[in-house]
């Protein structure tokens, strides 16, 4: 125990003050008073509190507390430097860990972004090859397909009917030539899916008319004034009839084909 610190205990005992009374008078807990008197500063809560306790206790005993405080600071300079160094190192470590966390977070975000882009790309491709999205609210009723089939059946039945027969002046039966069919103007396109299914997009005179999937046996007819553009997937499954002429499949199975039909 140093001479300066022993003064605290000697002065208290000389004045006949017990530790209990000093605790009540100074509001400093008894273990802290013992730590001050014996120089056992590990018992105190910290450097700032220790300096405050030294000042209060010294004044209570009628002593000048400044020499006590200076001795405490001098003896604890090394400890303070070590504490500051430890705190500084701790802060640097925290900064390094935080920077590493931010770096890992950025890498993860980039990875997530690439994954999302990949999924979007796959969804876009699958949508155009195997789905039937609506196109700007344009819907084509299946009744158009039924009407086209009915018209074809009527035309075929008319072709099967025998030519009308009249008698000439000599009472000879002479077949009357069928009136020539007047071909409608414009571009008439009928598409018929012969097998499996096919994604189909149709633009009529520059205006989108249909986009979706047609299945085997389904037929649709489109009429444009100047042109009709067909864009199909699985082209070998799609049969095209252009102005009454059957052109056969648009291409090979599983191939994607695009063709424009213009007014002749």
UniProtKB/TrEMBL annotation:
Residues 133-161 are annotated as: Disordered. One of its GO terms (molecular function) is DNA binding. InterPro entries: Bact_Cytoskel_RodZ, Cro/C1-type_HTH, Lambda_DNA-bd_dom_sf, RodZ-like_C. Residues 8-68 form the HTH cro/C1-type domain. Residues 133-157 have a biased composition (Polar residues). The chain crosses the membrane at residues 109-126. It comes from the Bacteria. Keywords: Membrane, Transmembrane, Transmembrane helix. This is Helix-turn-helix domain-containing protein. The lineage of its organism: Bacteria, Bacillati, Bacillota, Clostridia, Eubacteriales.
């Amino acid at each position: 125990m140093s001479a300066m610190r022993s003064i605290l205990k000697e002065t208290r005992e000389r004045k006949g003050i017990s530790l209990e009374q000093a605790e009540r008078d100074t509001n400093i807990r008894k273990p802290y008073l013992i730590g001050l008197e014996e120089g056992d500063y590990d018992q105190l809560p910290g450097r700032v509190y220790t300096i405050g306790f030294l000042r209060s206790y010294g004044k209570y005993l009628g002593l000048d507390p400044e020499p006590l405080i200076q001795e405490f600071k001098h003896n604890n300079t090394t400890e303070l430097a070590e504490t500051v160094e430890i705190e500084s190192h701790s802060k640097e470590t925290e900064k390094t860990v935080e920077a590493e966390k931010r770096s890992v977070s950025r890498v993860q975000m980039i990875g997530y972004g690439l994954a999302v882009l990949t999924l979007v790309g796959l969804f876009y491709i699958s949508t155009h090859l195997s789905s039937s999205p609506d196109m700007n609210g344009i819907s084509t009723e299946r009744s158009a397909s039924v009407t086209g089939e009915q018209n074809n059946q009527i035309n075929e039945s008319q072709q099967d009917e025998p030519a009308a027969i009249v008698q000439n002046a000599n009472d000879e039966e002479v077949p009357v030539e069928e009136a020539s069919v007047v071909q409608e103007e414009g571009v008439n396109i009928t598409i018929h899916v012969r097998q499996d299914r096919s994604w189909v997009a149709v633009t009529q005179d520059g205006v989108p008319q249909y986009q979706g999937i047609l299945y085997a046996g389904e037929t649709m007819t489109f009429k444009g004034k100047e042109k009709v553009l067909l864009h199909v997937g699985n082209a070998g499954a799609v049969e095209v009839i252009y102005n009454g002429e059957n052109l056969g499949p648009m291409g090979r199975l599983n191939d994607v084909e695009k063709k424009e039909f213009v007014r002749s």
